[in-house]
Amino acid sequence: MGWLWNDIHDMFDEDDGSFPEICICGLTAAEVIAGYRLIREKARFMVGGPRFFNLEAGQEMEIDAVECAATLVCRQKAHPFHFMVRDLAFGSGKVHEIGVFILDNAIAIDYEKGRAWGELQIETLLLLINKLKETSDKAFIRLEDAVSPKDRDRLEAALKRLASPHPDD
Asked: Would the pTM of this model clear 0.85, i.e. be above it?
């Protein structure tokens, strides 16, 4: 295993029943919409029939009943929503399953800890997070309050190292 596994695998590999969240905050509406479209494009399968509440229509709807549900959220015409995707391929890897929460200024990703997280899967997730974050000068990562400052620093360092042109340097 390489540096990434050695640095942060414990944040992913032990199934403790939690679903940690990594939130990319400070995004513009255009960045949220682009991120939503990227995730939908890269995921092979959407779990279940996710729904959202459309304020204009005054009813709950399936996500795919409209062209882009994230656009409605960003225009304050729909409530934020959560959906799950499987087999999300990004870079040279694939993530088995993640949850995605779409807000008007952020995209939060949650994951189930466990054996499905090898080094390539962790790298794939972090590369996706970097991609969602890189288009914005104001984007930042927010983790749950239960995450220790040391773990926050380790995750931020891994994201920064992966964003460099030669992450193995």
From this structure: yes
